[in-house]
Write a structure and sequence with these properties.
heterodimer, A: 262 residues, alpha/beta, TIM Barrel, eight-stranded parallel beta barrel, 8 strands, 44% helix, B: 394 residues, Rossmann fold, six-stranded mixed sheet, four-stranded antiparallel sheet, 19% strand, globular
Chain lengths: 262, 394
Amino acid sequence: MSKTIKDAFADGKAFIPFITAGDPDLESTKKFILEMEKAGADLVEIGIPFSDPIAEGIVIQEADIRALGSGTTTDGIFQMVKELREQTDMPLVFMTYLNPVFHYGYEKFFEKCQQCGISGIIIPDLPFEEKDECADIAASYGVDVISMIAPTSEERIQAIASRARGFIYVVSSMGVTGERQQIQTDLPSMLASIRKATDVPAAIGFGIHTPQQAAKMAEIADGVIVGSAIVKIAAKYGAQAAPYIYDYVKSMKEAAASAKKS
Amino acid sequence: MSSGRFGPFGGQYVPETLMNELIRLEKAYNFYKEDPQFCAELDKLMKDYAGRPSLLYYAEHMTKDLGGAKIYLKREDLNHTGAHKINNCLGQVLLAKKMGKTRVIAETGAGQHGVATATVAALLGMECEVFMGAKDCERQKLNVYRMRLLGAKVHPVTSGTQVLKDAVNETMREWSNRVADTHYVLGSVMGPHPFPTIVRDFQAVISKEAREQFLEKEGKLPAAVLACVGGGSNAIGSFYHFINDKDVKLIGCEAAGRGIATGQHAATMATGTLGVFHGMKSYFCQNQYGQIDEVYSISAGLDYPGIGPEHAYLRDSGRAQYVPITDDEAVDAFEYLSRTEGIIPAIESAHAVAYAMKIAPKMRPDQSIMICLSGRGDKDVAAIARYRGVQIDE
């Protein structure tokens, strides 16, 4: 049995790195994920590339294009995760857009997730109102559809948080993914509203790339999500990126872990 | 399930960041569409600024030449800015202003919607930024300059395939980045609810007028209404008030590009499959893994891999039919209408003209066909010349 999302948040602050599957190829992705685990990642988000990722900034958009260009498919990614499972039991979730999942067939998709130990899925274009689309089918295969809460959610937080499963993805900033120098949102009050509604752990993502930011975010929340900064390393070093990803993830995990327990 | 469904189609598949704004937009729209002052202001703009009602023109030469049904052209090309797009822009930008917004953003394909948005933004004193695929900017340089003349900032979109769908992606990204003071003037009956309904309602003026004009001129309704379909705004506008008239055939003409068999087309109804994209559940051109296809048409305005959700519903419920028209057929129709009636149609609208040329001869002289002439063709002259092997500078 693989570990679950719950295990990822069990001892202290979780560090959650993201990587686009298939950039530059699936064999490298597998290596990167194992390095991230060694460096202390508590949970890895595996991005299934989509042709038109409307919530992504330019770094992940380009990674998606490269991954699709190198022939990455949903079936190939399932195969990669299956092979990965021979070497690790760490918690894994997918992150993708609804269409690749819808088109694959919900039943078939989530059954395969269960078979290879994927315990959650983040779908940025599936808001609370549309969750009925696949949340029940996913749950029947033990896959949590992760809820997102944004700076504009306001009075929606209560409804979203109280139905959340796995963990809550707190979107730190307006706009799309990508590194930011400053995060303007009043995150402490967002987190306070979330905690009033649920004890499901909450992790903050979007814009975070420095250890200082990671430490700060980990003080407010239960976990820190980092995507673009890692994808950038993969873009720069390609198949040779593993040691660089290891160093970066290690520094970010240590920073997050140093945060006081909130 | 969310509101805003046409049968199983439609919905609100957008990032959480945009949800509250969509809810606010829906509330504001539901309020203002019943507000007498808003309706009076919009009516006045439609009449005095856009030049409505648009004419219903009897194309006598074309009718005689084809030797069948009487052909009528609904002259949306005579609207200010040269296309039906202004109907929607007047409505949406006025609505945005009432909502307290100071800035509008828009995607554009051929540039017609961008020009119409920039025009109304200039008129109503709003800041305007338009996102246009870098390839489309190249194809439609005149419209790029026209938007800049009107005070808009034009952003060439270099991500993805650099055409209309990428322009929509980029405009959605920009909207989620700055939503408080900004309204996204979506240009077609697509995207998340409430856009397909709002845009349809503002375009429905086309069929509202046409229905009355037919009763006045012919004493009866047309046998068929034809319109080109990309996202489907002029088509839904042309169909809407005829939907309950079961004897009126509703026919959408989509872009078959170099032919369905070549794979180089934008014929969503003929080849697309059910999917979720750009905020809506509808039909899309996509591969077996749900990756959206790159589509092709000579017409930048029809070069879209999806179709509005209400069209999907009208097709599946059997109320409307959708036919593919190739580049060749559209270019022939472009030249034919120019020659026979002295009217140069937009290459988009020429797709509908082409289908009329196919069916009119098989129909009776006591029947009539309405073609929505959604735009004028000045913007296409250089491209058509190139298509015919003639190089001219724009």
